[in-house]
Amino acid sequence: MLKSKKKLNLPAKALAPAGEIYMDYASATPIDKTVISKMINVMKENFANPSALHDAGVKVKKILETTRKNVAEILNAHKDEIIFTSGATESNNLAILGIIEKFQGAFPIPHIVTTNIEHSSVLEVCKHLEKMKQAEITYVPVEKNGIVDPKKIKKAIKINTVLVSVMYANNEIGTIQPIQEIAKEIRHLKKGKDNSLPFFHTDATQAVNYLPIKVEKLGIDLMSFNSAKIYGPKGIGVLYVKRNTLIKKIIFGGNQEFNLRPGTENVVSVIGLAEALKITEKIKEKEVIRLTELRDYFIDKLMSKMPFGIKIGINGDFKNRLPNNINITIPKIPSDLLVVELSAKGIYVSEKSACKSGNKSGSYVRDTVSSFGKKSNSLRISLGRQTTKKDIDYVLNILSKILTKLKKWYN
Ligand code: PMP
């Protein structure tokens, strides 16, 4: 078990001043101290453009390429399969739009298979392509437990399907999708075909901290993730693109990143991402055990210790969920009221995806799985490297007091 925060090298108080408890790690993670110092060291001297011919540029280019190699090794990929982007939104956009762009004109219309609980950076791209009549999309609904059936994905694949995009783990309810099984179904379909379609993309943004990420073992062709969720800097991400994947760039300019993603490379952030990824891999096994225990303790107490017998619902599968994710429905009380009440006590959780928090229409993810029906509320409590059992006991105590105060909502 990981005992001390210092061991993980996080800033002593990552975000919150004394007395405050941060439980919104699915939305953002604090930056690891080692990551910060690595970035500062590189930032101090290596400002030259990696594309420049002079020695200063060549030096930065070397740093970039060595770092790319390090990232590739962790994923069990080739160096030229790692494309640095500005984050997971861009990686998802590049994967989907880049493949559709490549197949414009090859079919009357190219087809994509995805699920109904993807992150908005996948779903909104798909909706845009539908609107522009550049692709037809099948949104395979997940089962009541928030997990998609690989057979249903297979059934949705047609002759013109160029891409299957299924997230590795959901950002709201934490459910883990059967990526390897889906890859297997796709491989079976491809057997005997003279093309490599469909390609398989996964958005692994929420998965990297806790799940295996060796790309060959997963059986995917493209994989997105960012550094902001793995205790690295924001504004930097990766798209893994397997060799021979047919894809075009979607923004135009220079020929950086193997001619797939133009723009001067953000070397300092790349360094931060690589270091964060290295640390994440190193402590993954222990963190999974530690957080699973904490999560299950939290859920157990939520079910048994809330005042006046309130029945709290857990959204998403109990077992196949991220070790740090607790997504609950507390009937009748509006989610935003609970988030604000908890925040007033220094406890930071969220209702749904931060990317959709300005949207008043509730959570499409929660609506697909909640046993309390549509428009019920939800709270996403996501644990992380700094969470302790003591924090959980404190949060349970405060939540119980808040629910007692809000009892009138039940009358
Ligand atoms: N996909 C998932 C599953 C996410 O959780 C997020 C971040 N909330 C994104 C994509 C977008 O990441 P970024 O903010 O780096 O663009």
Low-confidence stretches: 1-6, 12-17
Structural class: alpha/beta
Overall geometry? globular
Number of strands: 12
Q: So how many helices? A: 12
Order of strands across the widest beta sheet? Answer: 2-8-7-6-5-3-4
**How far apart are the first and last residues' alpha carbons, in Å?**
44 Å
Q: Please bin the fraction of helical residues.
A: 25-40%
* Average residue-wise pLDDT: 91
The largest pleated sheet is described as: 7 strands, mixed
Percentage of residues in strands: 5-15%
Order of SSEs: EHHEHEHEHEHEHEEHHEEHEHEH
Q: Taking Cα atoms only, what radius of gyration do you get, to the nearest Å?
A: 22 Å
Q: Provide the list of bound ligands, each named once.
A: 4'-deoxy-4'-aminopyridoxal-5'-phosphate
Give your account of this protein's structure.
The chain has about 400 residues and is an alpha/beta fold. Helices cover about 40% and strands about 10% of the residues. The strands form three sheets. A seven-stranded mixed beta sheet has the order 2-8-7-6-5-3-4, sandwiched between helices. Strands 9-10-12 form a three-stranded antiparallel beta sheet. The N terminus is likely disordered. The structure holds 4'-deoxy-4'-aminopyridoxal-5'-phosphate. 4'-deoxy-4'-aminopyridoxal-5'-phosphate (PMP) binds next to α3.
